[in-house]
Design goal:
Layout (H helix, E strand, L loop, with lengths): L4 H11 L3 E2 L4 E2 L5 E2 L2 E2 L8 H15 L6 E5 L4 H15 L4 E7 L6 E2 L4 H5 L3 E9 L3 H12 L3 E10 L5 H4 L8 E2 L11 H4 L27
Parallel strand pairs: 5-6, 5-8, 8-9, 9-10
Antiparallel strand pairs: 1-4, 2-3, 6-7
Length: 219
């Protein structure tokens, strides 16, 4: 394991063209900003994904978890590869499951018999990009509601400044923390300057197409 996982993650992001600056993005939260971490640029390269998940697994291996759980869809791949590496490190089977949206879309839940797989077991929750922390918190809640014990959480990148206390876990180990400036849509200087929203990445695809207009500007 590299002495500095954060440095290695930053190198990977740069090599894959996954860290983009000097543009105009709309994030899942509805906030705007000039930079974006494009996680989808990483996933096609299985060697990159394996290295990232090796780092995740090695960061939490001392906790000897039984199961790895991530939110669908973004962290399903990370959950599987991290569990695979933990199995190699521990010499026993570590399972991989995922949480998916509830019917009303306001939370996450373990279905498909995955609730039985986490019950009374030690679970590590994984996420790709943590922004507000809502998705990873909902995953933690879903595991606990199913009777699992969340012993740690980890993420590829935390760009929202989340801490263990804010996620209600004892151990939170993001591989990298990359703080990106964001603005409320109504206060975005990029909008005021007429910089068009990137409609290819982030949530800008929901834009009306008008120059600099927020997807939520008409709501």
């Amino acid at each position: 394991m590299p002495r500095d996982p954060e440095r290695r993650v930053r190198e990977i992001l740069a090599d894959c063209g996954a860290l983009i600056a000097d543009d105009h993005f709309v994030y899942t939260s509805g906030r705007h900003g000039p930079a974006y971490v494009n996680k989808d640029a990483l996933y096609p390269d299985t060697g990159v994904v394996r290295e990232i998940c090796d780092l995740m697994a090695e960061s939490v291996a001392r906790l000897d978890p039984d199961v790895v759980c991530g939110p669908a869809l973004g962290a399903i791949i990370l959950s599987q590869w991290t569990a695979h590496r933990l199995s190699e490190l521990s010499g026993r089977r570590v399972l991989s499951v995922y949480a998916e949206k509830t019917e009303d879309g306001d939370g996450l839940v373990l279905r498909r018999g995955y609730d039985d797989l986490v019950r009374d077991r030690d679970v590590v929750v994984v996420e790709d990009i943590v922004n507000t922390g809502l998705s990873i918190r909902r995953t933690i809640e879903a595991v606990r509601e199913a009777g699992g014990r969340v012993v740690a959480a980890t993420a590829l990148v935390d760009r929202g400044g989340s801490e263990a206390t804010s996620l209600d876990v004892d151990v939170y180990l993001p591989l990298a923390k990359i703080e990106l400036v964001t603005y409320a849509a109504e206060e975005c200087p990029l909008c005021r300057a007429g910089v068009p929203v990137n409609t290819r990445l982030g949530k800008g695809g929901a834009s009306s197409g008008s120059r600099g207009e927020s997807p939520g500007a008409r709501k």
